[in-house]
Amino acid sequence: MDLKQQIVDLYRKTATELPEDVFSVLERAKNAEDGGGKEILSKILENSNMAKSNSKPICQDTGIPIFYVKRPPENSEKELREIIDGATVIATDKIPLRPNAVDSLTDKNLGNRPIIHFEESGKLEIDLMLKGGGSENVSAIYKLPDSNLNAGRNLDGVRKTVLDTVFKAQGKGCPPYIVGVAISGSMEEAMHLSKKQLLRKLDDVNSNPDLKEFEETVLGEINELGIGPLGLGGRTTALGVKAAVSPRHPASFFVGISIGCWCMRRQSL
Amino acid sequence: MIRLKTPLSVEEILKLNVGSNVLLSGTIFTARDKAHVFLLENDFDKVKDSVIYHCGPIIKGNKAIAAGPTTSSRMNPYTPKLIEKYEVKAIIGKGGMDNSVLEALKGKAVYFSAIGGAAVTYANAISVKGVDKEEFGMPEAIWEFEVKDFPLVVAMGAKGNSLYDEVYQKSEKVFRRLIG
């Protein structure tokens, strides 16, 4: 099968099938809830099953397509970009995806425009994330120290920024959330790295013991907030917290926080 | 389970308590950011007394493929005027709306939460009746839907109660404690 068709298939799988790890954590969460939260999570799981069996998008917001491409030297960026753009047009028509690219000045709908991150590697590997707008709108960036939160330049300060982000998000971005966190010395790297954390499977254990502890502690604390499924109250406000760091400038300490909705659509080729 | 059918009356709406599950049937209109501006700047009598659904659906061949709710808070600035101008009886969305909307709902309208992301469930309950302002693009157009048994939760009532306020206040206490 040619690569273009494989990417169309990747789009279909990503838009219509909730990743297994997300599904199973949602199922566990449903069993732990009662009342309204349980009802909502049951409906969410039922919808995901229907989407998969009917091959229809789980959510009408099929998001911004974000590609993370590892490419061998023989595949140029230009060649791969053309293939991905061609696949995007077909996928938008056939699956269908919602046309989610709007000209920021004229408001004209442009179809879909994927964002593609390239990295050179030994073989071709493609991750696709369909990132919904609601959860993107509640993502955030912080510059530490932050006197409002009394947050210093350490993991405890970072913990406070994550709690602040989720508290402010309440139910607006479709909780239970998946939270990507990154510390960096530059703003765009902090956001990029935090979003890449959303590609990690929920059962993936951080190899850094400090970050592993951070992820577990912060997940527990977010769930104490009681915001619950869809922000209508309950025990499950987040399904996972995934953190990473990159070196920073001595003057700068940025914390990027990327929020993923429960419908965290990501698949690999 | 409470079953409602459009057109909704104020009497019916006033009986609803927050937290109750509802199945709604009848006619509803989608409207998001751009449509709200349009509705306030123009007269569009079709939506008078109607139900507004914050939704940017995927439609193909006049069929709803996926059609769950979008985040309602973006429509906060327009909604009190919309309720007043068109005597809208109900709003369906997700994530809740601000206090200006809660105030505008009093005695007039109700806010239902739909389940964000449950797009196939909702699409299966929809038949597409028509579309206006298609030039705004598929997500932003005003779609007229006939719906059957739409599963909703009463989240902001016409009596001034809000499930979101309760959740916010509880979460704020925990947040303050955790921040120290």
Could you describe the 3D structure shown?
The complex is a heterodimer of chains A (269) and B (180). Chain A has 269 residues and is of the alpha+beta class. In chain A, 41% of the residues lie in helices and 21% in strands. Chain A has a 4-stranded mixed beta sheet with strand order 4-1-5-10. A 4-stranded mixed beta sheet of chain A has the order 6-9-7-8, sandwiched between helices. In chain A, strands 2-3 form a two-stranded antiparallel sheet. In chain A, a hairpin with a 6-residue loop joins strand 2 and strand 3. In chain A, helix 2 (20-32) runs antiparallel to helix 3. By secondary structure, chain B is of the alpha/beta class. In chain B, strand 6 (90-93), helix 4 (99-105) and strand 7 form a beta-alpha-beta unit. The radius of gyration of chain B is 16 Å and the shape is globular. At the A-B interface, helix 3 and helix 6 of A face helix 5, strand 9 and helix 6 of B.
Total count of helical runs of at least 4 residues of chain B? 6
**Structurally, how many domains make up the residues of chain B?**
1
Name the strands of the widest sheet of chain A in spatial order.
4-1-5-10
Which residues of chain A form runs of ≥5 with pLDDT under 50? none
What is the count of β-strands of chain B?
9
> Per DSSP, what share of the residues of chain A sits in E-state strands of 2 or more residues?
15-25%
Radius of gyration of chain A: 19 Å
Distance between the termini of chain B: 42 Å
Q: Report the uncertain regions of chain B.
A: none
Describe the global form of chain A: globular
In CATH's first tier, which class of chain B applies?
Answer: Alpha Beta
Question: What would CATH call the architecture of chain B?
Answer: Alpha-Beta Barrel
**Could you tell me which chain pair has the largest interface and how many residues each side has?**
A-B, 53 and 50 residues
The largest sheet of chain A is: 4 strands, mixed
Oligomer: heterodimer
In angstroms, what separates the terminal alpha carbons of chain A? 13 Å
What global shape of chain B is seen? globular
**Whole-angstrom Rg of chain B:** 16 Å
Tell me the strand order in the biggest sheet of chain B.
Answer: 2-3-6-7-9
By helix and strand content of chain B, what is the structural category? alpha/beta
